[in-house]
């Protein structure tokens, strides 16, 4: 039989736990938002909420429904679970080439994610282009971030708006990710490149399309998706 003071303690445990969860959620949202260099107003515009609501959320003074949390997580390039994770990722971890999350090959372009999730200050991708391979028929944009394109090997043509540039091994170029861009391997050998983007422009839905190569080879449903980043 429980004593009266045991019942009192139990009744106070739930509110305390809920307050702790709200505090953790608020701290995590603020940490990821500031890492992405987003103001409260900018995050509100991305998620259909307001700066006032987000301020309350970050201070642990209010909660959010699942739909809103999913929108916030996607805008920050993370999963909802990341908003409640008190642990920190190990700062040093070697990721082998075979462990890189990858997109299914498309248009002769093989793209892998080098950055570890959740993304904070930047995102980095590696790309391999077959001879004649490209990022697609049409130029594309993503966000309004600073992007660097580095050629490791091969000879490629990068189109930026109305301009075109020929880059070879060791060459790099920087531009805004809001500028329509397209890459084509115009050399007679495969090419390899790196994209570096800061702050990140990919949301959780974009990153979820990247899976370990072994999963791609086994016929995972993710094979039908293609990201527009990089």
Descriptive notes:
Residues about 215-230 have low confidence and may be disordered. The longest helix has about 30 residues, at about 5-35. This protein is an alpha+beta fold. Helix content is about 30%, strand content about 25%. The termini are far apart. The protein has 6 helices and 10 strands. It has helices spanning about 5-35, 40-45, 50-60, 65-75, 205, 215; strands at about 100, 110-115, 125-130, 145-155, 155-160, 165-170, 170-175, 180-185, 190-200, 210. Helix 2 (about 40-45) crosses helix 3 (about 50-60).
Secondary structure elements and their pairing?
Elements: H1 4-35, H2 40-47, H3 51-58, H4 66-76, E1 101-102, E2 109-113, E3 123-129, E4 146-153, E5 155-160, E6 163-168, E7 172-176, E8 181-185, E9 191-198, H5 204-207, E10 211-212, H6 213-217
Antiparallel strand pairs: 1-10, 2-3, 3-9, 4-7, 4-9, 5-6, 5-8
Helix pairs in contact: 2-3
Measured distance between first and last alpha carbons: 63 Å
The helix count comes to 6
Rg, Cα atoms, Å: 22 Å
Spans of at least 5 consecutive residues with low confidence: 215-229
Spatial strand sequence of the major β-sheet? 2-3-9-4-7
| Tally of DSSP β-strands | 10
- As a percent range, the share of helical residues equals 25-40%
Mean pLDDT: 83
Element-level helix/strand string: HHHHEEEEEEEEEHEH
The rough form would be described as elongated
Strand content: 15-25%
Structural class: alpha+beta
Tell me the major beta sheet: 5 strands, antiparallel
Pfam families: Cupin_2 (PF07883), HTH_3 (PF01381)
Keywords: DNA-binding
Protein name: XRE family transcriptional regulator
InterPro entries: Cro/C1-type_HTH, Cupin_2, Lambda_DNA-bd_dom_sf, RmlC-like_jellyroll, RmlC_Cupin_sf, TransReg_Diox_bact_type
